[in-house]
Amino acid sequence: MQAEAAVPASVRRPVVLPIVGLAIAAAVLIALFMVINAAGLWGYVLPRRAVRVGAMALSGIVIGVSTVIFQSITANRILTPGVMGLDRLYVLIQSALIYVLGSAHPWVSNLRTNFLLCTAAMALFAVALHRLFLDGKRTNIYVMLLIGVLAGTLFDSLASFLVVLIDPNEFLIIQSRMFASFNRVTVGLLWPAALMSLAVLAWAAPALRYLDVLALGRDHAVSLGVDYPWAVRRLLIAVFLLVAVSTALVGPITFLGLIVANLAYELLDTYRRGPLMAASALGGVIALVGGQLVLEHLLVFSVPLPVLINFAGGMLFMYLLLKERSAW
Amino acid sequence: MGKAWLLAATVVLAVASLFSGVTPLTPADVLKGLSDVQVRVLVLSRIPRLMSILLAGMSMSVCGLIMQRLAQNRFVSPTTAGTLDATRLGILVSMLFFGAAPPLVRMLVAFSFAWLATWAFMRMLERIKLRDPVFIPLAGMMYGSIIGSAATYVAVQYDLVQNVSSWLLGDFSLMMRGRYELLYAVVPALVLAYLYANQFTIAGMGEDVATNLGLSYRAVVNLGLGIVAATTAVVVVTVGTLPFLGLLVPNLVSILWGDNLRRHLPVTVLLGAVVTLACDLLGRWLIFPYEIPINVTLGVLGSVMFLFLIVRRTAYAG
Q1: Per-residue model confidence (pLDDT) at position A285
Q2: Phi (first) and psi of residue B38, to 5 degrees
Q3: Which CATH superfamily, name and number, covers A14-32+42-321?
Q4: Which of B116, B127, B138, B174 is the best residue to mutate to test the A interface, defined by the most A CB atoms within 10 Å of its own CB?
Q5: pTM recorded for the entire structure
Q6: Residues in contact with A11: Cβ distance below 8 Å, sequence separation at least 6, in sequence order
Q7: Cβ neighbours of A28 (radius 10 Å)
């Protein structure tokens, strides 16, 4: 990927064209999703579908962008932010809330309160992880990731303990939240989530400028004059927060980012992270909206979308792990 | 800390395990002569529980040790190489398709899944040259979560999620006579591990070195993975998952005693027993007369200790 930098600009494939293509594809899919099989009930269909499309677009964009950031700072193409244990924390929070308070409590049944609670808890976890393990002296990202993974295992064992204790009827509510779904989202959730994502990106913007340099790895970045620990810390927190928002909004979609980020790398002949992030975000929208379209109208909901995405992402992960023999 | 201390700790904890529980039973009672009820509690429940704790704790620790040797990576273990997730999938499949079959068949299915997944992961490790040793467990966890999501999907389709969770939650409170005997199958695996300890060390140095030294590399690796898969399957089917044990104990041994596999296999076995006994006792005492399953106590203690290990190891860039 980086090798292309030496090729004269005229020889390189243009970056703009694929992005425009992706944008058109995304727009077409969204339009199709809005109008297909509406049967003339526009007043009923449009607002409801708009919210679902909004949720899909938002989580697709957030996941696409955060994965490219994440893979750039880890200088690695096959990891997803999903390894950091946030999705397991989400399941644990839901299980704990339902076990302690019951499914009728407003903190569980009011989706907005539930969303805010989950985001806050995950943000707290992210910040704690950084405070404890990225304190300037140590900035080995992999170590921090491993710690995130371990925390994930811990959350998992606590959650499975709660699951055993929980009443089977209440458990069905947890189960429905273990998988990503776009049907739960309401307008009241969508706006706060969108605003939060924007705020996080704005906060990370000063560090985002250095993303191209950070992707060269720690040594190069430091010798090119980037304040590496600062930039990495800020971007990692941003990635955590973005994933937290998307997970709290629709539920865990662990492997989507892996697919769309790698799609972006293949499609665009560039090392520049700006276009890559755009392409990856659009890819996220296309994957979710298109996937949902196919599922609803061709496969008639036989398989949930996140399961399909996780499966495809898993296959891609294995392929990449085996194909790229060197230098991971 | 020497082996003698470890042995003493094992004995003390084992005795404590025998004499803690709801039915009053003290060492003094044994001297005075036991009542019928006490004899029955001891034979039906306490001794089977103690034996299963010892066997499971010892064998899972040795599993971790073998895997770490073969992969030459300190962070590889049944938890971080897909073995546990594959076992879960295997048990699910056997519950669905061989529901009426005896436990032995279930175990064989689980074993095949565990072996296949671990073998595939180790083959992948051989093919990738990695920059950072910490990357391997990350890849392993992602690999495991792929298998795990397949298992979860199947479980959801058949409404078995809660059922499987309770089945696989590591817990010794149900270990009674007639339910734990399958665990004795790990004894031959432990003996084999001891006999082939040196071969595992050599195989861990890589195929070229091992072949140069006159070792049938493939055979040794397959034997090691077979031991790991069989032990994991047996333990998960009878007790449930014991997270972190295979990761934690070998790392502690290597910090405290060093890295000679064969000489430290007994230490690993004993430390595995001590950790498991201690976590089980903690779970039994904390909310007496109720119990916290060992999955939770081990998960909490294990992750805290492992965090400490990582921070320490990477501080020395080990």
Answers
A1: 92
A2: -65, -40
A3: ABC transporter involved in vitamin B12 uptake, BtuC (1.10.3470.10)
A4: B138
A5: 0.79
A6: none
A7: 13
